[in-house]
Structures are given as C-alpha cells and as structure tokens.
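Page 42, continued from yesterday. The earlier attempt failed because a stray header line got pasted into the input along with the sequence. Redoing it now with the clean sequence only.
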Amino acid sequence: MIDSHCHLADDAFADDLEAVVARARDTGVERALVILAAGNGAESAQAARVLRLWPETRLAIGVHPHQAHEFADAPRRAVDVVQAQLIETPAARAIGEIGLDYHYDFSPPDVQRAVFRAQVRLARDLARPVVIHTREADADTLAILREEGGGEVRGVFHCFTGDRALADAGLDLGFHISVAGILTFPKAGPLRETIRHVPLDRLLTETDSPFLAPVPYRGKRNEPAHVARVVAAVADLHNISAEEIAARTRENFTALFQP
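This time it went through. Structure tokens are written below.
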C-alpha cells in the first residue's frame, strides 16, 4: 500500500514518530509521500528523521495557499524558496501541496493565485509533478493549471472531495485523483459515486494524516497505517480485492512520482 499524501513532519508526530512509522510498515504501507511547507526549518528537520526511520519515503515541497500571504510582496520569492529547497533535498519528488483555498481567509485570493501560478510555472520548468489543494476555488484552480501547465504539468488532486465535473476536468488535464479517509464517512455517498467513475489507473490513496482519520478512527489523530481503510473502501466501490487496489495504486504512484 501507498500513502500518497501525509504530514509526518507535523508536530503531531514529534513525540512518537518511531512508533507511527513502525505501525505503517507493519500494516504493509511500503511508501509515503511526506508534504513539507517550503522554508519551514522544523518540518525539514523532522523530515530528516522520517527518512532515517523509513528510507522509502519521499517528499513534496511547496507553499500552501494558507501561507501565500507570506509572499504577497513578491510571489516570485515563493518560487525561489521552493526551488532552493528542492535542490537541497534529494528525496523531493514533487511541488506541493499548492493551490487555492477560498474557504478560509488566511491569504487574499489574488495573492493565492499569484503564488500558485508561479509554482505551476516552476513545475513546468522543472518537469515536476504537483500536488494540488483546492477548496471552493475549483474554477480558478483549473484555469491556472490550464494556462500555466500548458498541458505538460501532471500531478494529483489530493484529498479529493469534489464532484464528477471536477474529477473529469482533472482527468482531462492528465491528473490523478487521490482519496482519503473522507471516503469512509457515512455522508460521503456522493463522493463514493464520483470515485466509482475514476479509472483505476488514475487513482491514488492517502491519509492526509494527522487529519481526517477514516472510520473507525474518526475524531482521532490519523496516521499512515490507516491508509489500509481507504484502500479497503476503494476496493468495495469497485468490487475487487484490496490487494488489487493496493497493487494498482502502487503502480500509479510510481508512474507519477518516480520514487
């Protein structure tokens, strides 16, 4: 199994990182993509711990829309920070998570768009995949990916909670769709119906831990071992074995991120 998106460098795992990694590996999680906030020294230090404990993990580095305001004076500076950290981080495989989030007011929308646009350009220049966060901003997210990606940038819409139209638009752009523990929630029927229509060769599984723990862990801290519940939920949707879903999503992860 693969956890294609987690935040093991978060403070939530600082005290028991070794046990969390051990549980993931014991559960059969082979790899994880760990997301780092660009320029965050504490997260970089913890990522180094993760790599020592779990050498198969890989990293993604980017400026999240919530942090875009830190670069309001010069969006290009966000690119400089990300690019410098990518160069210094051999385990980095992607730029992310990046995107737009209009649900919260942490960064003005125009600043978010400028910082996102700059990072998509960087991904195109470096031929790196991107990890996309979009919330209540789908039209603008898609527009920037089309305008700046130029049909060349690939990546994943992570923790997908959108509708069929967004899934189809992402697939048309060549993107993967990644599902997290929300898929197991009782009221996630519309999401399950959307994911049922996503081709198996474009699906990924993730936890987004420490957030969004799946049933029966909902309300508790999430962790990579729980991706097994997401894999099982996807298998149920497609009426095939969890082992086959694990194998297919592993292939998809490898094709996209070249770990």
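Notes: The chain has a mean pLDDT of 97.
Reminder to self: strip header lines before submitting.
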